[in-house]
Description:
ten-stranded parallel beta sheet, Leucine-rich repeat, LRR (right-handed beta-alpha superhelix), alpha/beta, 3 helices, single chain, two-stranded parallel sheet
Amino acid sequence: MICSGKNFTExxxxxxxxxxxxxxxxxxxxxxxSKAFQSQWKLQVLLISDNHISHIDDEAFSSLENLQxxxxxxxxxxxxxxxxxxxxxxxxxxxxxxxxxxxLFYSSFHHFENLQxxNLSxxxxxxxxxxxxxxxxxxxxxxxxxNNLTSLHDGIFxxxxxxxxxxxxxxxxKEIASEVFTSLNSLTILTLVNNEIEHIKFKTFLSIKxxxxxxxxxxxxxFCDCDLQRVFxxxxxxxxxxxxxxxxxxxxxxxxxxxSSLASVDTHLCIAxxxxxxxxxxxxxxxxxxxxxxxxxxxxxxxxKHWSEESEMSYESQD
Length: 319
């Protein structure tokens, strides 16, 4: 049933009860009431993209037990209620890209046990509750690119053992917890391009056990020093991890290395640090030796002066 571009403003439409595919895209709908689809129990595909929807009643989709695909992209949805996933236990693909979502909570996703693809890109998401996706044990793709995430805490991706694609590009991520990827046993593509990462810990990516995981890390705010060189050196030696864009990883700091490829300077970073350490060590050594020499000279002067005074006093007593 194709109802795209009909300028509908409300769900006062006589849908046939045996409809399996319903296209309501490109209309002027602003909300989805709780009983909008109560007779469409055979529905498998529901497209409501490109509307002006800002509110979805709890349990709005509760009767859609056979729904496989739900597309809500390019609307004005700011929040998902606790009953958003009610009735959608068969859903396999959910698209919520290009909305205004800011926070994600477990209560909004806990009935999506069969979901395989979740697209949350191009929102303003800055907070994800720990374990928000823990019911999505069959999820294979999670798209969170183009949001406002600043950190990745341990437990955010817990229970996603079947996740294959995790896209976190174009956020503001600066901090990544060392165990955040531990539960991702099937991960094949991890994209962290264009964030604000300055340093990473080796064990953060070592926790990924999937053979042949492709990791993308270019366009971050890398602070190129000996520690970073060592981390990337270790990552490159791990056979199961593939750094696809290593030669596109460029330095932001220090200023003298800005826009330089890490690959072109990595062999010099620790050398420079070693030279600096040697110079400092040599300077300290010279200073200590000089101090010892000066102290010894002063001691000899004091000893000589004391011996001279004793000799003079002895000579006078003989007279």
